[in-house]
Structures are given as structure tokens and as C-alpha cells.
Amino acid sequence: MSKPPVIRLTTIEDVSVLFELIQALAEYEKLSHEVTGNAETLKKHLFGSPSYAEAILAEIEGKAVGFALFFYNYSTFLTQPGMYLEDLFVLPEYRRQGMGKALITYLAELAVSRGYGRLEWSVLDWNQPAINLYQKIGAKILPDWRICRLTGDSLTAYDPNRTRNLSASQD
Predict the structure, then answer these.
(1) Which of 25, 60, 71, 85 could in theory staple to 121 by disulfide, Cβ–Cβ 3.0 to 4.6 A?
(2) Dihedral through CA 118, CA 121, CA 125, CA 130, nearest 10?
(3) Any catalytic annotation for residue 134?
(4) Among candidates 41, 13, 104, 110, which has minimal Cα distance to 67?
(5) Pick from 70, 74, 72: nearest CA to 7
(6) Predicted confidence (pLDDT) per residue in 8-59, tens digit
(7) CA–CA dist 58, 99 (Å, integer)
(8) CA-to-CA distance for 18 and 10, rounded, in angstroms?
(9) How far apart, in whole angstroms, are the C-alpha atoms of residue 51 and residue 44?
């Protein structure tokens, strides 16, 4: 890499380029058909009140070439907040130049500066280049944990009275 990347928190003006990178990530993972959101909703969730996530960009000479999107979680065992890295992506032509490491380094420094107890994320089992990077920087791959997820119809069908119950408990 000739020039080091500029890594920075996104601003509201970055939402459209961030969404383009999200679409590129979905294409890389062969999951474009699962992208149902849009830049406007992303903007609301990143910069609205409340905000649900934050993102950082990696730039080379002013061009966004990668991103990481993260949000807060909590460790009951550490009794400390943490950071969960939802997605990290670098455009293919900028890989193997230190971009991924630079993004993770920025996040780790941010987590430490905010007093968080950990930074964690998931990796697809077929993404060996990413696994290699994560192991190289000292991340522990947890082999006995699996991600569980309810989304879409399975989430709403889980408890048809959920909305009514939540509304009643907030009164």
C-alpha cells in the first residue's frame, strides 16, 4: 500500500457511499437478494435519535474503499459494555494492503477509549482470508459458539401477541 488509508467515523454525508459498500459486501457474499433496506433507512438508524449503530470508512485519496459497521452490546460476565462489529468489508482491489487491519485497529482503539471490555464479531466459515487476518492480529475464533437468529416471518410468527404484550408493558 503506497499511502496509508484514512480511517474515520462516517458523517451523514457518507450514507450513500456507505450503502453502496454494503451492497458490494452483499454481492461478495452472494446475498444481494437479502438487501431489502435503503440508504434513507440507514441514515435514520445511524444518525437519528436514537441511533442504533455507527460506521467507519477507510479511504484512499478521498475514495471510500472499505467500511466497518458496529453497535454496542453488553457482557454480563465482564459487567462492561462492548462493541459488536456487524460487518467489515474492503473492496476486492484494495485487499491484502492492510485495510482490514487498519479498520479493526481503529475499532479496537475506539473501544478502549470508550472503556469497553471487548470487541467481537463473527466470520463466515468459508472466508479463510478473513479468518487468517483475524488470527494473525490475535483474535480468538470461538469454535463452540453458533449464531442464532430470528428474522422476518420467523420473528413475527414467534409470538403473535408480542406487539400487544410489549405495548401493554410500556404503559
Answers:
(1) 85
(2) -90
(3) yes
(4) 104
(5) 70
(6) 999 999 999 999 999 999 999 999 999 999 999 999 999 999 999 999 999 9
(7) 7
(8) 8
(9) 7
